[in-house]
Amino acid sequence: MAAIPPLPSTGPWPLSELFDSLEDVQFWIKDIQHHYLHANRALLLNYGLNETTDLSGKTDYDFSPAFLADQFWLDDEQVVKGHRVVNRIELVGGSTGPPRWSVTNKIPLHDGQGRVIGTSGTTRWLDAPALRQPDPTGFDQVLRLIRDHYQTALGNLELAKAAGLSVRAFERKFKQRFQTTPQAYIRKLRVRMACRLLVYSDLSLAQVAIDSGFADQSHFNHEFRRQLNRTPGDYRLHYRR
Question: Which of 104, 111, 126, 209 has its CA 20 to 30 A from that of 140?
């Protein structure tokens, strides 16, 4: 089998300079081993870096806590397999302040033969000016509703009302846009928020479950293990060791 040619370690990157003018959007390109090759000015500033050369060849483990870097790595592994991360809300931190709610997208990069040779992504603040403009689809309101109330029981009827759609139309359009169901999207966010509590708090596992939006610890344990292939207790022990 022919070797996949590596992405160049330096530019020029087509259109990438356009992202330098977007203060509220972080943009990056990684190779197939998840090393950074390029980033725009907003991402560099978020990590307190001056030049792309300060980031080139490094990974998320050089800039983020291990439990977050592991999550980013798992995402990138899925993207390398040809999947996408589409409009996912999450807390994104940096060296210049507390984490902020953001909307993240990641896509695979292909060579001329269609082989995946790297990944690229963007993260935009959820309260960015562009996202405060009227959205005819209504999904900006849905994302904010999920962000503000993921700990509560959010049904598709309530989400559909926020989008101004019938339940059936909402479920169909949501899956088209986010490549998953509304409830699966919420469960993914709840698990990620639980990860933060497991690492940064001393709350009991039962309280972490409740504070993250799960009905009880049993439901929490099942969903956590399904997504991350380990129990919440094992996760806490590993990342707080």
Answer: 209
